[in-house]
Input
Amino acid sequence: MIDLVSASDRALGEQAAPNTTADRLLQIAAAMLRELRPAAPIGPVHLDDRIERDLGLDSLSRVELVLRIEHAFGIRLPERLATAARTPRDLLDAIAQAEPATGVVPLPPMPAPLPEPVVGTPEAATTIVEAFCWHLERHPDREHITLIEGDETQETISYARLWADAGEVARGLTAAGVGCRDTVALMLPTSSAFFRVFLGAMRIGAVPVPMYPPLRWSEIEEHVRGRAAILANSLARVLVTVPEALFVGQIVRAELPHLHAVISADRLRGTDGKTEVAAVSGRDTAMLQHTSGSTGDPKGVILSHANLLANIRAMGRAAAVTSSDRFVSWLPLYHDMGLIGAWLATMYHAVPLVLMPPTSFLGRPSRWLWAIHRYRATISAGPNFAYEIAASKVRDDDLIGLDLSSWRLAFNGAEPVRAATLDRFAARFAPYGFDRHALTPVYGLAESAVGLTFPPLDRGPLVERIDEGVLAREGHATVSSDPAISALEVVSCGVPLPHHEIRVVDDGGREVSERTEGRVEFRGPSATIGYHRNPDATAKLFRGDWLDTGDVGYVASGELFLTSRAKDLIKRGGHNIHPYDLEAAVGDVAGIRKGCVAVFGTADRTSGTERVIVVAETNQSDPSSRAALRERIMALAAIHLNGPADEVLLVPARTVLKTSSGKIRRAACRELYDKGLLEAPRRAVWLQLAGLVQQAVAASLRRGGNGLTQVAYSVYCWLVFILLSGVCVIAVSLLSVPQAGFRFAHIAARTMLRAMGMPLTVENLERLHAGKPAVIVVNHASYIDAIVLLAVLPSGVHFAAKREFARMPLFGFVLRRLGTYFVERVDPAGGVEDTRELAAAVSRGETVVFFPEGTFSRAPGLTAFRLGAFAVSAETGAPVVPIVLHGTRSVLREHRWLPSRAPVVVSVQPPVMPTGRDWSAAVRLRDHVRAVVLRQCGEPDLMR
Output
């Protein structure tokens, strides 16, 4: 029997050995607090302390506390306890009722096999409702969503059932006065009610606004009031929620005149009758996804039906999703990854979705893994902290018999991906059939619906070890293998989704070269048009048609590597936390200097997520007054962050760094905190701050100088180009022999590159045999590709160029004088005739240079190869010599007119002989050569 003795006032700090269950429980809690905050003063822990407000434990810490209690007492606590318990006393009561741990988890029964595969997807659909109806017409009884809790299946929902339930909701919303394009707020937990209300709103053309529900309904009042800003920003006409929230909702409704009704989902059932689907288009708003949920300035991302469908289709293509997959998710439905990535994407691709509440995962993380085992899931996703919990918190006894071999895509996104977490997870679960290649770090943001970059399939994580010193000083990502050098492990998030683009720019908005750190921007069909009723935030989001992610990183070989998150955004436990409202609330506390509060996040490498730090200036010196201030700030943090702060620092006046205009410099404060300087002796603080400011000024001057240097270099390059081009035009005009003109152009091109200081490396040029005819094919990446080839190739070669160039007065004249052949790209008959002419030239002993891609784009990647060059090779029997250009795209991208200095490599690959003279031989030759170029160019395959 477990001894239970009331000890509500007994603290763990007592010297006596813990003789009661309460003592042992408090000892476990206090020991964990000391580990979490070793530098902060830890007071006594009492049974009636609030776990969040007084002890400051977030959801991750709760999981750890429950696991420690179970291990210490040899028991199995209820799964919901990690989120439901409010005080240690609740945990004490649960201990008394817990069952002994058996040490073995029985294998759950296997579910029914997957339904028959579905042929095709709703490619012609222009709205989410049209996509749903496509499936409804073809397989109404197909398994769509399976809701589970613990080991039990709660219900399975087919397309037909969800459509019928949504019809009832649609009629109920109409009766409540909701019309087309009105907004409907959803504050619902993971349940069938969420799906029927969301789809029901869409059926009548209304716009759903997901809002996250409170973790504990006992705190519903604080939660609903905290979400009033979203209701106000979205102009929600109706709030659909659970019965427990109705009373508080009615109070909030009195403050929001546009909010006509607060209704529980169970009562939202309309009368009998047919519900017509509203006539909306792909351009219409499908939903509002709020990126912040507190009281100040919520940002509601406007996502149209076209945005959602474009993102879903692009993600499906990048992940090779089929209806034979199965997705297991515990992600909350108010979050874009759970709502769009898990539900709407699986609906579109007819992938059965198995869904458990987030509390099931937080209460018993092993349930996530067992659900994958039980349902033979092929896809599942979570933020980094979820993989860290699974890797480090789940006990071996909970994994006996686990089989994860079906898991082919383990998406890791929504917060910074840690290389150490990936390694721990792969190593921990390899004995259970998990393949490291399934780990798939991805990147996205609500402004792009959900997804933006995905890595190549089946490759596994790509991690670079970057020299931190070089990155800080020069902004260049230099890979280092020296263990003595302080290095940053950066995980690739992959390449942009099909039809989407990313770029990295400096502070002046100029695109930087490869491996240079800067702000990440994007554009594409998933991109939002802006924030709902927030023109100021929308204006800051756009730079022309590019959108600022707010994140910092670099691009290498077409893949995105993020080096730091958005400047102010905190990502903890899969949630986005914005600091502004908490700073304002703490500034209003008596004893805190108003406007002198900084809230920021700092990496917690142990948990794989971020810790929230609150720094507040005060003149209070009395210990009891300072303790009261800390308690008040922790209480405010619990309200504004929907969770606790990890640490509260009370610092002297003029410690919190600000800009000259008075704005809080959170990043600089974070740097001081990470260096342990925020609580340094008062006498030395200004000296330390001065050093930090000096570093910041030096960095700013260096970046500004780099910008001016870049402009000056670009102007110089253009002057060199204009001068040498003019000389070249005159010389080529006067020289009557094309070979002589080519030799002069060759010298001019080499001189131009040298004058520009362009680092040029040529590899294996000897593979081009002089005097022997060949077909040269080159990947196309930049405007300067032709100049580089002119500088490298021997005389006697001829270029094949598109016929449009021949019609350019001066340019066409020069190309003709250099012996260029012009080919037709549009007219098929003309293209065939041009191919015959080129084949005749090769048969005469000439070597012809082709750009088989035909064109290039600013985004890295190899596009499809046209067949002309390979048809010439097959017909003549001449070898194809692949030449791979690397680096020219960084020098001068499409639509950019300011060149950068970047190294360029020209690599001549071994010749490839045709294996026949027919059409099939030309196709085989094309595919083989393209594979060679793709392997060597270091850019992604845009045909995947």
About this structure: Residues 1-17, 682-689 have pLDDT under 50 and may be disordered. The longest helix spans residues 682-734.
